[in-house]
């Protein structure tokens, strides 16, 4: 049976696809192995290059940097979700002026690079007499840029719902605001949850741009540690210099862990919603 876009692969094609997959995995494994081998050859895995992480002050500062990253992410995510919901509703408004203004705002902040937004808030506003902390500049930049993207995600999710949902709500006498808040938006959130989580992962990684405006987040601290000329003990005369690669590996692992935890949390929420829907549907099925 053939599809409109492609033909279902036959036995030979399936064997060929498996061969391509094996070759691809082998190529990636060989590349990673080569990188690891080169790092080992250059002494990047030597114990002395990793001794910096045993210092208590380094551990405390690293934990504080992770906390600052999560602070910016948490507030930025909440505000971006609220911004996206409000402007998605604005773009779907029955009033043309509201639609035009909402569309202009969304397209404007979606088009401006996030880094420029942060520069505008941190370096531009002081010229107008408004001073802003690096934290707030990062949060506002994350909110406006990612909120604009989420507004389009919400709008697409709402428009993808069957029109019968809103028509039935209007028939019950509900107002448009009630229909949007109580009927359409919750369903759009469930439908678009994978896309929303993907954008939140992007938001989490975008916090790294804060180091360019001196926000003391994870990447900023990694740059500081990697640029220190020497760590060591004057009494024992043991020193090691500029642990750039080890710092990059540690910080990269922390970012990967945070993103994976966010994805796992989203998957658990999605599974829980599915179970709740099945439980709610069970009595109706029993009655029938």
From TrEMBL:
Q: What InterPro entries does this protein map onto? A: AA_ABC_transptr_permease_3TM, ArtM/GltK/GlnP/TcyL/YhdX-like, MetI-like, MetI-like_sf
- Gene Ontology cellular component? ATP-binding cassette (ABC) transporter complex
Which biological processes are named by the entry's GO terms?
amino acid transport
Keyword Nucleotide-binding present in the record's keywords: the answer is no
Q: Which residues cross the membrane?
A: 20-40, 70-89, 101-123, 135-158, 179-202, 244-267
Q: Where is the ABC transmembrane type-1 domain?
A: 66-266
User: What Gene3D superfamilies does this protein map onto?
Assistant: MetI-like
User: One GO MF term, please?
Assistant: transmembrane transporter activity
Q: Which CDD domains does the UniProt record give?
A: TM_PBP2
Entry keyword set: Cell membrane, Membrane, Transmembrane, Transmembrane helix, Transport
Q: Which domain of life is it from?
A: Bacteria
Alphabetized PANTHER family for the sequence: AMINO ACID ABC TRANSPORTER PERMEASE, MEMBRANE COMPONENT OF AMINO ACID ABC TRANSPORTER
What family is it from? Belongs to the binding-protein-dependent transport system permease family.
Protein name, please? Glutamate transport system permease protein
Q: To which species is this protein native?
A: Actinokineospora auranticolor
For this protein's source organism, the top of the classification is: Bacteria, Bacillati, Actinomycetota, Actinomycetes, Pseudonocardiales
